[in-house]
């Protein structure tokens, strides 16, 4: 007799719970729904639906990946950020909802600046830059990343979102010499969510992060602040007078990053918290008169 949907979901959820997955029932529904083309409501209301052998095998293949702690978004290949879909690749970080704090802080500061030019440092999927461009149809931008696979993924995401004409992506390493040359600046806004995990903490991260997000996207050096030390002094040269820097920070890093920005002679340094109450974004401004739209 064929397995029913209810039986398959219950067995798979029990398996994921044993593997330490806290959101086992939800994850199983997302994975099975993807295979079967059903939404959560349909799966809950029709537990008696029989599964063909092929359907059961396809669900099993995805559940086995989740059992090895691969994140659901990586299994499904895409992740929503700021209401937009982003395709993931092996070399991209999975965008996090906390990073939407950076987008909100940046958009608020851009109000009144016409046709802003935006730079995104360590662009990954392109999520920060593309979310800003989607909200500001008069904006254009450039995203750089050291990882070639991230640059390719960001360009594909820009095309899929209809933003390719306003977004350029290229490979670039901020640890290199002359790395700010040829970026096409100066910019009205510099965004970044740099790697900020202290190196010693990488080994104790959740398996979903440790084993599946790329190390280049996570490792912030001994205290997690190495990229900020490198990037802060470059900001005045990258920004127009009055231009804005909006950077994501890790928990407990906001004060140190604020000090680095002040030390780089940026002004109006402000900290923004995410929905969980964690200080998540440091925003600052290059001194001078911003361009004001007429
Ligand atoms: C924390 S991830 C952020 C990705 C994306 N902006 C987001 O918010 O989801 C940091 C990104 O910085 C890139 N990166 C790390 N070191 C870099 C470097 N030296 N130069 C340029 N990009 C770098 C990584 O490849 C990764 O895509």
Please describe what this structure looks like.
It is a single chain. This protein is of the alpha/beta class and 294 residues long. It folds into 2 domains: 64 residues; 209 residues, Rossmann fold (3-Layer(aba) Sandwich), CATH 3.40.50.150. It has 12 helices and 9 strands. The chain has a 7-stranded mixed sheet, sandwiched between helices. α8 links the parallel β4 and β5. α2 packs antiparallel against α4. The protein is elongated and about 75 Å long. S-adenosylmethionine binds next to α7 and β4.
Please supply descriptive tags for the structure shown above.
Rossmann fold; binds S-adenosylmethionine; two-stranded antiparallel sheet; 9 strands; 7-stranded mixed beta sheet; 2 domains; elongated; 294 residues; alpha/beta
Oligomer: single chain
Sheet with the most strands, sense and barrel status: 7 strands, mixed
Order of helices and strands: HHHHHEEHEHEHEEHHHEHEE
As a percent range, the share of strand residues is 15-25%
Ions, cofactors and other bound molecules: S-adenosylmethionine
């Amino acid at each position: 007799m064929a397995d029913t949907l209810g039986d398959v979901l219950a067995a798979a959820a029990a398996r994921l719970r044993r593997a330490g997955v806290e959101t086992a029932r939800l994850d199983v529904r997302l994975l099975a729904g993807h295979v079967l083309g059903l939404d959560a409501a349909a799966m809950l209301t029709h537990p008696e639906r029989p599964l063909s052998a092929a359907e059961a095998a396809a669900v099993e293949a995805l559940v086995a990946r989740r059992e090895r702690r691969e994140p659901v978004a990586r299994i499904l290949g895409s992740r929503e950020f700021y209401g937009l879909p982003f395709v993931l690749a092996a070399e991209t970080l999975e965008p996090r909802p906390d990073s939407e704090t950076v987008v909100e802080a940046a958009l608020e500061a851009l109000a009144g600046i016409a046709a802003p030019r935006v730079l995104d440092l360590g662009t990954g999927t392109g999520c920060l830059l593309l979310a800003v461009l989607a909200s500001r149809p008069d904006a254009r931008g450039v995203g750089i990343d050291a990882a070639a696979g991230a640059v390719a993924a960001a360009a594909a995401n820009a095309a899929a979102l209809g933003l390719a004409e306003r977004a350029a992506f290229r490979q670039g390493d901020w640890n290199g010499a002359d790395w700010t040359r040829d970026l096409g600046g100066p910019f009205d806004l510099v965004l970044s969510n740099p790697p900020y995990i202290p190196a010693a903490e990488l080994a104790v991260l959740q398996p979903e992060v440790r084993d599946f997000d790329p190390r280049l996207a996570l490792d912030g050096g001994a205290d997690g602040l190495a990229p900020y030390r490198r990037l802060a002094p470059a900001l005045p040269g990258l920004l127009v007078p009055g231009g804005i820097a909006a950077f994501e920070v890790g928990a407990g890093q906001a004060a140190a990053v604020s000090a680095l920005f002040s030390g780089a002679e940026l002004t109006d340094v402000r900290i923004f918290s995410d929905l969980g109450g964690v200080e998540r974004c440091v925003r600052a401004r290059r001194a001078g008169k911003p361009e004001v739209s007429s």
